[in-house]
Every structure is written in structure tokens, then in C-alpha cells.
Amino acid sequence: MPLVMYMNNNDIDVLCINETKIHDMELLLPDTHSIIRNDRTSKGGGIAILYLRELLTSTVPLVLQNKTTLDKTEIMCVKVQLRKYKSLIVCSIYRPKFYLTLADIELIESVIHEL
Fold this sequence. Notes:
This protein is of the alpha+beta class. It has one domain. The chain contains three helices and six strands, in the order αββββαββα. A three-stranded antiparallel β-sheet has the order 1-3-2, with no helix packed on it. Strands 4-5-6 form a three-stranded antiparallel β-sheet, with no helix packed on it. Strand 2 and strand 3 form a beta hairpin. The termini are far apart.
């Protein structure tokens, strides 16, 4: 089942995807949806946030201190608002490892603190 069809059938307004591996192709989306992408410049990877086009969105820039851990971690945050309701921030964080280190946890804490 195509991803956008899955979103429509399950009433999903925002969806974060990790390991997108779409850096060399365009993702075909219907007029009802948009995508914010953060493709990896090397092989594979990448993260994306798909959302209904009627939502007001803007990327949230992060100024994180721990550059060593950040080089190994993909992070993208988006502010989302529907009409005049309060906005919320959706964050996609991907660390290509099977376990978390103390540095990873500190990075996540710094993202939360900054937001």
C-alpha cells in the first residue's frame, strides 16, 4: 500500500520517516500532501516528515553544542499548526545504532532543552 494512501486511510496528518534513502529520486505525493526532507549526502539514510498540505509548517532550526554526536545523528524539527489551534513541534531523531550512549542521551536532552 502506498504510504500516502496509508496516511489517508488511517487519518494520519503528520508522519516521520527515518532511513528514507530517497536522496536520488523525487517522492511522488498527491496535491494533498507535502514533504520536508533532510537527505544524507552519503549513501542511504535520510529523514523526512510528510504532512497534510493544509497544515501550516515551518522548520525549527537547532543550534546544538555537541557536534561530535550530531555528526552521527540525523535531526529535523518542524512546527505544525492547523488553522488557529495551538502549534506543536514534531521532531524526528535518528541515530543509526542499536543502542544509545550517554552522548546520545545528552544530545536528545539538549534538543528538548532548546525547543
